[in-house]
Task: structure prediction
Amino acid sequence: MTKFLHRKGLPSYLFPSIVSYTRYVKFQENSRKNRRESMLFLEHSPCLTGGIGAKAENLLVSPAHLSALGVELVTLPRGGDFTAHEPGQIVGYLHIDLKKRNLSLGDFLRALNQSLVVSIKETWDLSVEENPKAPGLYAVEAPKLKLVSEGIYAKSYFTSFGFALNGVNNLSTFSLINPCGAKSEDMTSLLRLGKDKDFPKKRRKFVEIFTEKFIDQLN
Result:
């Protein structure tokens, strides 16, 4: 684990290896209990997660089939439908005390999206935008394919979960679901957009830019 930024009481960590999803869930539960802020950036082994609004018909295969593929299925208290994680993504988890910072959830979400838009543009020269009818961020030039999935949980004025940016992952796990109620064909990645050159270096650059932009907007 690499701690690369610590400013104004908000430590941020970039993990060099894959972290299991269940390990993260335990971490965020403990963070909320102790109201301990942090930002984590990591990647997971193949898994599917479903939020409180997940619809059964958007899971396209049986749990037995998922088990045979080695894909974990996790039900979560966050917002959103089914989404997928797999190695090669940049997953960002944001644990922010909204009460302490006197922020509304709307303030938090605006800061998140604005920071992502700027960070993706500065790192990969790629324009993304929001879709008022669906969560996440979409590539403007792709045309409008989804690059970033988002799912935020705010309980007791403390946030957890966050976003997943498709990097050099092959998107195969998304074919097992209708991601966020859409089609797997509506997803894209930096790899598919031809933006995968020097990914490890660009991954760190993106995280550094994002943390700076995001922290600035929280204060």
